[in-house]
Amino acid sequence: MEQVGAYEINAVVGRGGMATVYKAYHRRLNRYVAIKMIHQGMHNDPAFRGRFEREAQIVAQLEHPHIVPVYDFSEHEGNPYLVMKYIEGRSLKDILSAGALAIGDMVKIIKPIAAAIDYAHSQGVLHRDIKPSNILLDKTGVPYLSDFGLARLAQANESTLSADMVIGTPFYISPEQALGKGEVTASADLYSFGVVLYELITGKVPYSDGTPYSIIHDHIYRELPLPSAINPNVPKAAEAVLLRALAKDPTDRYPTAAVLVGELETALAGENSLALRQEARHGANETLAKPRALLPVEANVATTIEKAARAPKQRSWGLIAAISVIAVLVLVIAGLLIRGRLLARNATTTEVSTSTEIGAGTSAPVATRPPPLRLITLYDVPTLRLPEARTNLTSNPTDPLAYLTLARALMEQRRITSQTEALQTVVDGLAYADDPVRYALTAGQLAQDTGRQEIAFEIYLEAIRRAEGTDLYPAIREQAGAPAYRIASDETFPRVVIMAEVTRAVEAEDSPLALSLLARVLIENGNAELANAALGRALTQNSALAEAHLVLGELYAQQNRAGDARAEWQAVLASPDAPGWARQRASALLQSAVQ
User: Fold this and answer.
1) Contact 511, 519 (CB under 8 A)
2) Which of these, 300, 327, 201, 182, lies nearest to 249 by C-alpha position?
């Protein structure tokens, strides 16, 4: 893409789960702008375009010296986009990654941002995703709050636990946003702003251990870690301000951002600012702002994981197909056979009838949280335009990153044939990957980032299959299981994909976790019989699999078997090795069932 309306695209400057940000130039106006192009997968919802236009109009009316202004909004080849002021400088996240700020410098940033937050609230506009990466500083040090309203464009009135965590970032999300219940008010923004202040003062965010789901759980239920316990130099007066700012109950927080910052500035004045030494703090260099930045749950975790033992065995990548009743969308990706695969599967399976009926689980006490996992870090895949990506692969035919780079470029194209080629490119590169599981996880995230959910789902299933029976499997249950479950829970996911896939998977004695995720799609599409068959096979192979019990509970709930559903979800909470995301989902479902 080189031209979007009147704008000439110069470079990609950022990429997230919702949009790709381009630096662009308007020749007639002789100015640079930032274009946020919404990913295709975000606007399949028929109501999206109306919501996009409404929200864009509201945000475009905000006029404040410390809010990044929106100049325009339109569509390019069917993709909605926003045109915003281009801020040449750095984000607060980038600044913190280099070290802590002096108190005086910190105050110079947070006071204007507080004014921006309060102004937007006075106009009836919430931000919903305040975090360091959305606070920008230009070359002269002037701070700006960016991305007002963008989180709202992605989803509306849905629980964060079931909506891919789009509205709000787990490190900075308010308890009420995390619960997804009731009307979110300005207090949610003030909580997120409070987390940013907590990070600036102590050097880290209050909750950072575990998976995104466990972090969200901590925001809702866990007592706030005392700032002085993290950094003994934090003055008691400043600690009191942070405790109020991060109160679980919105009514206990500060009424405005300006009042919050005013009290914090007073608490840090004079000798207190000297006590809170800059060198005693450090920037929290972790973020979940982009879905591809997977959170390590141990400090300084190694960036690579020991290669799994692999035994040769052939497996089909599976059928990817989607048929739309609307003539403008026809996506048929033929079954792709991966030959000569090296699979990481040592687990044995038991032959059973595919019509096996499943009994209800039993109630059990909640198990303690499993020990921290060493998660797998994704490859850093370059972003190239399609011609450059093809040339790069031609020059490096045995480099797996070259295949992933081309796959990304293809996924960003709108043509159906490009998506077929993208998947084939991922498959071809697998043969050259030293670490197939890490490769598959990266490919799955690329597919998610570009809105190719069908491709992402298939790739995540393959990562699960390859890791089964190896020491990588616990990490894969988190890293591939969580996004695959969220995709599976999407009611727009093509049913035809799963009808063919489940039949093959049940007959082939597929991975129990893969079968459970396939069953989740079938439940969403109303095919209880086939879902029951898939779960029957999964639980026959692994009767303790928490994910299978989670999905079985959802099947029972759909059949109005409330008692059986609750028993299955309680079994998930009682499982000592259940992934964090499964625990949080089971907890949310149980809570919902009680109300």
Assistant:
1) no
2) 182
Type of residue numbered 562 = A
Domains of the chain: 3-85 (3.30.200.20), 89-280 (1.10.510.10), 544-595 (no CATH)
Which H or E element spans position 19? strand 19-26
| Residue 154: partners with Cβ closer than 8 Å, 6 or more residues away | 17, 18, 42, 166, 167
Q: How far is CA 253 from CA 108, 273, 354, 491, in A?
A: 23, 24, 55, 37
List % helix, strand, coil for the chain (3-state, nearest 5). 50, 10, 40
Torsion of CA 458, 463, 465, 467, to 10 degrees: -170
86 neighbors 32 (Cβ within 8 angstroms)? yes
Closest-CA residue to 485 (of 512, 460, 449, 455): 460
Task: Identify the H or E element spanning 71.
Answer: strand 70-76
Is residue 118 among the annotated active site residues?
Answer: no
Model pLDDT for residues 390-407, shown as the tens digit of each residue? 999 999 999 999 999 999
CA-closest candidate to residue 565, choices 576, 574, 556: 556
Instruction: Work out the number of other CB atoms within 10 angstroms of the CB of residue 260.
Output: 24
Confidence band (pLDDT; 50, 70, 90) for 159?
A: very low
Continuous H helices in 100-255: 103-122, 150-154, 175-179, 186-202, 212-221, 227-230, 236-245
C-alpha distances (whole Å) from 334 to each of 166, 317, 321, 458 are 31, 11, 7, 13
| Three-state DSSP class for residue 85 | strand
- Mean pLDDT score, 381-391: 91
Select from 71, 65, 67 the least CA-distant residue to 84.
71
Write the CA distances from 66 to 45, 63, 130, 375, 449, integer angstroms: 32, 9, 14, 38, 29
Coil, helix or strand at residue 465: helix
- Cβ 563 vs Cβ 589: under 8 Å: no
Distances (CA, A) of 27 to 5, 13, 22, 42, 246: 11, 19, 16, 30, 46
**The amino acid at 487:** I
Helical segments of 431-494, H only: 436-449, 453-467, 473-479, 481-488
Residue with tokens 């293809």: 410
pTM value is 0.51
pLDDT tens digits along 530-578: 788 888 888 888 889 999 999 999 999 988 898 999 999 999 999 988 9
Which of 467, 458, 459 has the alpha carbon at shortest distance from 441? 459
For residues 384 and 11, the answer to whether their CB atoms sit within 8 Å is no
Query: What are the CA-CA distances from residue 307 to residues 20, 355, 430, 434, 550 (Å)?
Result: 33, 37, 14, 8, 30
Question: Shortest CA distance to 113 belongs to which of 101, 121, 124?
Answer: 121
DSSP calls for 330-353: EEEE---EEPS-EE----------
Catalytic residue among 118, 129, 164, 510: 129
